[in-house]
Every structure is written in C-alpha cells, then in structure tokens.
Specification:
The complex is a heterodimer. By secondary structure, chain A is α+β, with helices and mostly antiparallel strands. Chain A is built from 14 helices and 33 strands. In chain A, the strands form seven sheets. In chain A, strands 11-10-16-7-8-15-12-13 form an eight-stranded antiparallel beta sheet. Chain A has a six-stranded mixed beta sheet with strand order 2-3-1-4-5-6, with helices on both faces. In chain A, strands 21, 22, 23, 24, 25 and 26 form a six-stranded antiparallel beta sheet that branches. By secondary structure, chain B is α/β, with parallel strands linked by helices. In chain B, strand 14 and strand 15 form a beta hairpin. The chains are: A alpha+beta, B alpha/beta.
Amino acid sequence: MDIVPLERFRNFCIIAHIDHGKSTLADRLLEYTGRVSAREMVTNQILDDNPLEQERGITIKLHAIQMNYKADDGHEYILNLIDTPGHVDFTYEVSRSLAACEGALLVVDATQGIEAQTISNLYLAIGNDLEIIPVMNKIDLPSAQTTMDEVKHQIMDLIGSKDEEIIPASAKQGLGIHEILEAIVKRIPAPKGDPNAPLKALIYDSIYDSYRGVIVNIRVFEGTLRENEKVLFMMTGKVYETEEVGILYMTRQRTKQLQAGNVGYFTASIRDLHDTKVGDTVTYDKNRCEKAIEGFQVVKPMVFSGIYPADADDFEDLRESLSKLVLNDSAITFEPESSTALGFGFRCGFLGLLHMEIVQERLEREFNQTIVNTVPNVRYKVIKTNGEILYVDNPAELPKLQEIEEIQEPFIKAQTLTPHEFVGNIMKLCMDRRGVLVNQTYLSQTRVDLHWELPLAEVVFDFYDKLKSTSRGYASLDYEFLEFRKGDLVKLDILLNGDPVDALSSIVHRSKSYEWGKKLCDKLKDLIPRQMFEVIIQASIGAKVIARSTVKALRKNVTAKCYGGDITRKRKLLEKQKEGKKRMKQVGSIEIPQEAFLAVLSID
Amino acid sequence: MINYGIYIHFPYCIHKCSYCDFYSIENLNSRNKFIRHLTNEISLRTDEFSSPVKADTLFIGGGTPSLMKPHHISQVFESLHKHFSFESDSEMTMECNPGTIDVKHFKAYKELGINRISFGVQSFLDKDLVFLERIHKPDDVSNAIQIARDTGFENISIDLMFALPGQTIEDWKYNLESAISLETEHISAYSLIYEPGTPLYENYISGQVKIIEEDLDFELYSSTHKLLTGAGFEQYEISNYAKNKKYCRHNLKYWSSEEYFGFGPSAHGYLNGSRYWNYRNNDTYFKLLTDNSLPTEGKETLTLEQKAFEAIYLGLRAQGLDLTKFQNDYGIELANNISKKIKMMESDNLIRYFDNKVILTNKGYFVSDNITLEFARMLK
C-alpha cells in the first residue's frame, strides 16, 4: 500500500446540536466521497447505528469513518470524520474525540441559532486549538430566510469569523457539500507527527466485541503502531500485545500499521473495557514516549440509583446482565446492595439521567430483565462528628442524625442559552431550584447566555424538561461539576403503615421538605392500588411525620361469575391478575407497583 | 361411584336482556330441531361411559328454559333417563322467567321430576326492569311464585341484581324486602357485571351508562348480607343465600371441583379431569350433531397445578378451602409464612380460620380474587 504523505490527512469532527442535521450532513459527506451509495442512505443514518440512538435521535457511542476525497487541487486526501456524542451527560467523551482532531465543522441550524450544548462543545474545540469551519445548515427551509442573518451574526460574534467563511448548506438537499469538503482540505491543518518517534496515541473510544475483545479506537500522534508489539496503557498501566491494526472505513479494514497523524483501531485480546479508558495514552512498552497526552480524567458517575430484579430469584441473572452491559459501557458502575423493601439489588452509577434511562432500557430490551428502579440521587459528602468523611450515594446509608456534622451536596456550573423573552421564566425556574445567577451576557440583541451555580440534585430530575417547556423548547443547557457545598439537607423517609420503606427515602433540602413530603404522599396515594386493607402513607423527617395520605381499603375485587360452569374463563381471568401482580413488589404485606419507586420523578 | 351433575343449555329468549352474555337467540323457530340434536348429544357424550351414568343434579339453564313446551322437556327427560340413572333425592332445577309462566307447563315440569325453580326476577322496580330490558313486570313475580307453589314446588329461588347504574341503597333494600316477603328457600344476589359484547357494555364504553362507585357497591353488597341473614338466610357463596341448608347442590359441584356433563350450545362440562366447551352457535351445533360429531369447540386437560389453583379459587368462593385436604389432594407444600398471612386476614375480618380450614367472611367474599391470589402465592 502506498504511503500517503502526512500533509494529505485531515482529521475533523462535527459539532452540532441535536436536530441541527449532524447525522444527515455526515451521511451526505460519505455519499459525496463515494463511501456509501445513495441507495444505502435511504434507509440509514450511518453513524447512529444503535436502535436506541436512532429512536432518540442522538449519538451515544462514538464512531469514526475514513473517506477519500479528490480535491480541486488534484490531490487525493484522506479525511477522518470522528463523530461525537450529543448529550450533556457525555461531555468528557466529547472532549477526547475533539482532542483527536485538528478541525471541526460547527453546524448550526439556520432557523434555530446556536444552542448551549453547541457552544460548550465549541469552546472545548477552541480549547483544543481546533480550526473551526462554520456551516449554516437547513438554508433551504423557508423560515431560514428571516433568521439566517441573525444566525450568521451569532456565529461571527462567537468565533470571530468573517461572513464569507460561513458555508451555507443544506445537508438534506445536498447543497454546500463540495464547499465543505474543500474547506476541510484548505482550512484544517494537516496533522503533524514523526512516524519514527516513540509511539504516542490517544484512545478516544473503545468498543467491546465478544469475539475479538475490546476494539480500541485511537488517534496516533507520534510514531507508528504495528501489529504484534507490546503496548502500554499509560494510565491503567496495563500491557497488551497488539493483534490487528487498521483503519475505519465503513467497516474496519486491516492495514497492519497506523502512522502518526492517522486515526484507526487495534485489537489485543483485551477482555476488560476498564483497561482501555477513554483519554488514556497508548505507547510501546519497550520504547515509551515521554509524557502522556494531557486531559485524561477518570469518568465519575453523577447520578445513582438502585436497580433491583422485579422477582428476587432473578438477582444472579441481573448481575450477569449488568456485567455484560459494563463490557460495552464502562461509564456504568454497579455494586451489590440490599434494601429491606426490595431485597438484593445493585446500586448503579450513571453519567446522568439520560444515561440512566439508556441503561434501564438496554437491560429490559437486550437482556430481558424486569427491573425495579429506585429514585435517582446524587452523591453526597457527609462529614461525621468524629471527623470521618463519607460519600453517600444511597439515602438509606446516611448515618444517624446525631453522627452527622454536615452534609455537602454537589454543585454544578450550568450554562443556559435562551432567546431573551424567556429569561424571566428561566430565572424563576433556576431560583426555584436554589440556583445562583453568576453571569448574564447578551450574545446578540435577542440571545442571552446565563451562567448559574446550581445544586446538581435539583437538576437531576425534571429540570431539563421544565427548562424546555418554560422556553417553548428554545433554551438549552450544559453543565459541569463545580464543587461540594454545605447544605441544609435532611433525609425524608416514607412509611407505609408505619414501616419505613428504605427504597423510597430521599435526601432533600429542608426548605423544600414539607412541600416535597406532601406531594410525594399524594403521588404515592395515586400510584399504590387499593389493597385488602387500608394503607397509610407518611412522610417523616427523623421521628417527625410531616405529611400523610391514605389509600382506602379495596372493597371489591370479584370479577367473573362462575355460574354456568365456565370455570376455565374464571381461571384465565385470575391468571391474568396473577401476571399483573408480578409487576408489583411485595413490601411487607403491601404491594407496590414499580412506578411508585420512581414517583419522585413525576412530581410537579 | 361418582354422581355427576348435568347442565343443559337452552339457547332461546323472547328478548335478550341488555346485560346478559349467555348464549341465546330470539328466533324460537328451531326449538324442535334443537331438542332433537340435544338428545343426540346426550347420547353421544354418554357413549363412552358404562351406562347408565349416575347423576344427582340437573340444571336446565339458558336462555329461557321456560320457553320449552311440555313435549320438548319430556323428550329431554326421556333421553336423560335412557343414559343416566338419577338418585332418588336428585336436585333438578329449571330456570324460569316470571314473564313466561304457564300453569300447564309447570305441571308438566313437576311430573317429569323438576323439583327446583329458579326465577330470574332481578328487580321489583319497574325502572330497573326497563333498564335491564327484562320482559316481565314487577307484579308478575308473586303470581309466578304462587303458581309454582300451587303446583307443588317446595324449593324455589329468586335471582336479584344489584349495582345497577343509579341504584340507591333504598331501591336495593326494597328489592331485598320484597324478595324476603315471598318466602322462597333461596335467593341469589348478583352484582351487575359489564360483560364485553353486551349492549350494556357498549353503553358503558360510549359513556351513556356509568358504573356505580366501589364504596356504594360494597354497601349494597353488605346490606344484602345483613338483611338476608336477618331473615334466616345463610350466605354459602359470594352471591348465594339459602334457608335451611337448601343450597343449590348443582352449583356446589362447580365450586367443589366435581365433574359434570354440559349439553347444548356454549355449555361447559368437566369430565375425566378435562374441561370442555361447546360451540356457541346453534347452526354449528346442529351441523356437527347431524354428522354425529360432538359439538365440542375446545377442551383442556388440567395439570395438577391448574387443578390446585382451581381448588383454591373455587373453594374460597363457596364453602371454604380445607388446607389439610388440599395438601393431601395435590401434594403441595404450603409456604412458611402462611400462618402469618392467615392471621393478618383474620384480623382484618376477611376470613375465618378453624380446623385448618379457611372460609371467607362476607367482607372477604367481595375481595375473593385478592384472597385467592394471596393463597395461590403461598403455594409457590
């Protein structure tokens, strides 16, 4: 194979908000460079190949594809497109895939303008010294005619680009594709690097394959990666021998070696995804590079929740499913825990709520598990009177009141971008969530950038949905962890007929505890079906009951008659009821439907 | 030797009531043909049994069996006696509509051996009867009972229905008191069920008819118990009350997992551990029997587990679940927590428990599905 000189490589990514047309644009680039046919395009958005991704219209895992493009200057170039996840839960992964590139396409919807998520990723890109090529997409839409100028100004204000540097495009109609490819070649710098230097490569993603082990996706910065060589993962300290090395076309293509500047993959019979952490540096064990690539972080879960088998007998099955899931998604953490209400289960950590929902859905769909999920919460820092510091991610594990010196909760730095008419609504929402406004800037006459400090616990639940509904969908959100801060926090317990149900406990701010307790009692009253006896629901802080509601006793549950000798039908009706009961969790003598454990999420 | 029960379904009505989902048609023309095929079915089904088959209960239901003419019913009895041998104290019930009473017919029934009449009264209030689309009037009832008594029937039952839309507790008490005053041996009081496929159900779905509140339903149900037990009746099943132990022995067979023959379209039977049901259509029924084929639409042979589950819900809905007998019959161990659960249900006044036997209270009967599932779970 001819060695393509380094100056003919271009590595880039696409920064865009959900729905702004990233996947369609990527498809169009692949089609234009002949990587896929138009016919294949009809059914697929190539990059979002996971069904969950397609349903939700988001990218969860990273992907990369190499294209060959013959530019107007007559040379053939190799373009590596590295896709990035598109949700606030996955900011770190985004930063690593940006670090693997020299340039980025900034795709902005001509009718919508720039969103907070885009801006935050854009800043990440600028921080990584990436060359930004602004693309104004969807110019074919009639409404774009009125909004285009403003969006153009937003872009110019943001990145200081000139009018003519912004490429008008319509990925849907195939407009501007040639211009974009030319800009990639002309404006994005070629990668640098010495193929003979000690190997230095960045892991920007890794995927578990049950046959070949972990497939590590990398960007080589220095040196040349070859097959059958011992490589060292600098952060985890693990050493493996490479087996297959190649590049990423539509499918993986073995090339036996990968030079500085290029993007590709390797396998090394790695059985544990945790050995190949995103952001880690790969070098040769014998001939090591001097310094690891900067920016590595251990990804820490932000949101925790209990996952229990609906049927206690399925505990081992659930463990196995989680173990398999973790092979594909190393961001999940799980540890066995037990609950007096729910029996044995796992405390799982997630990057955010979306990540949690994805994991739940995968467990149910791919692994056929029927699970009960408890209320998600953040991880608190507890300082005990004896000076001991604890991190508590399960409210049931909070020490006794008299042993607690103080409880600290995680705060985040949040950014919301909104058209100015919604500023009032968003202020109110953030204030309600105990937020502190730090900064407010007008990006243009009508577009406002608000910076907040907010307790993460207040954002975890329905904040994003509320933000969207209060701004008719226009406001956007991005956040990152800031610090732990002392808070006036209390543990709110729920008692059913006098017995506390640990899986329903939560940690809340004292100022909100009464209202919260009342709403929770009312919600549970609606969710818990009438039983043969009355069920009294109480919310308490310590020994003090602060709210109460009652599920009246069931008076009647006797359905089909049994008088014509049709016993079969009656049995079938009862069997149906029996099936329905399987979706219930028996806590003491009370049957609680699974939804009740997530009641908190549906409180207004 | 077992004594079987016999159920005969007579699929004709002058007018179909709005709530009823039992099979019947309003065109009476094919009655002669029906009787002919029915007797053929009796002969075919008993064929594989060593004859004559012993029986001690007969229940002729429908439909409106009182639309059978004396010559119809004598044909049926002729066939029955040919294939069955009845115990001398057999219970032979016939359902009658108070609006289709004929003295001559009653005499014929009596002479053939019918000794129990069950009247589909439903209500003594005109508005209820209109709502339910019954063909009789309130006054017809006492007249019908008088005729039955004069003919010599000593075991008479009345069916009543509560939980009708708009029904008040006063309406219902009036009905119960009217029924009590007629001094029948037996009263059945059913809670109205909205059965899919009935006009009543359609009206409920379209919002024209509203189901009464659960609490009122319960109040009506418990007032039934209060008034009827006060008048000397004993509740021996969810909806059934009898004086002097004059239970419906045929129905008790259903509830104690005993076997019975079912004849006629849509009839169900339970023979040799297998439940079967006939086609719910006269034409299919006629056609199959013309070819001397059984009109069976489906059947299932019960597994031990299914039999055990049936024993629980059938036992609990009537005369109780004998746990000792249950364990012997099905060889199933009871869960460890059973005594704790039993205590709880006892203290909630849902069951009575003695001699290792569980019997539902009046309150318990009305949530019998829940209690059944509780026990079914304990038998895991």
